[in-house]
Structures are given as structure tokens and as C-alpha cells.
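Customer ticket, subject: "Can you confirm the structure for DUF1508 domain-containing protein?"

Message body: Hello, I'm evaluating your service for our small team and ran a test protein. I'd like someone to confirm that this is what the system normally returns, since I don't have a reference to compare against.
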Amino acid sequence: MAVFIIHRATRGEGYQFTLESSQGEALLTSEVYKDFESCWHDVEPIRIYAPLESRYERVNRLHEYTFWLKAANQKLIARSARKYASAASRDHAIERTKWEAPLANVRIEK
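Agent reply: Thanks for trying us out. I re-ran your input and got the following:
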């Protein structure tokens, strides 16, 4: 089963979450939040918006393909956890995110 992993940001300044697929692939990553509670709170909107095609923005830059997940107000709430070599690979990751995010568990790594 997919899992949202809440962890310290890479530089140790705040928290962020990553959505990991049931196969262990990082699909989404969040912005860095100042505190744990804010990070925890923003997992739920991902579950709500992830299944909706209209919430995705596909980004193509110099043969690198990524995506953004946006809220109803168009605010960026998460981005793809990696860059893809093709649009097809990116689109496959979006489809997996749509299916896996709504039911993903949450794991906390403090």
C-alpha cells in the first residue's frame, strides 16, 4: 500500500512529506513546512485532489518531464518527486498518484 512519509526536510529546517507508491517509488513531494502540524494537516488535501485530472499541471522543460498538483485555488500543493525522461513515464506516475494517494497510510519519521 502507498504511504505518505512525513520527515525532516533535507536541510533539517522544517518538515515535508513524500508520497511513496506501493512499489516503493517516490511519486510526490511537498513544500517544506515550518512545523510538523502544518505538514501533517496538508496530507488530507492531497488525498482529496489527487484523483482529479483537472488538478494536475504537466511541466515539460528541456527533455525533463514533471508534474504539479494544485488545489482548487490553483495553489501548488505538491510536485513530482523526480524528473522523468519521457512524457509517458510522467503520465504513468500521475495515474499511479491518482489511484494510490486517496488510500495511502501515513508514516512519521521524526
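A couple of notes from the result: The chain is about 25% helix and 35% strand. The mean pLDDT is 96. Feel free to reply with more questions.
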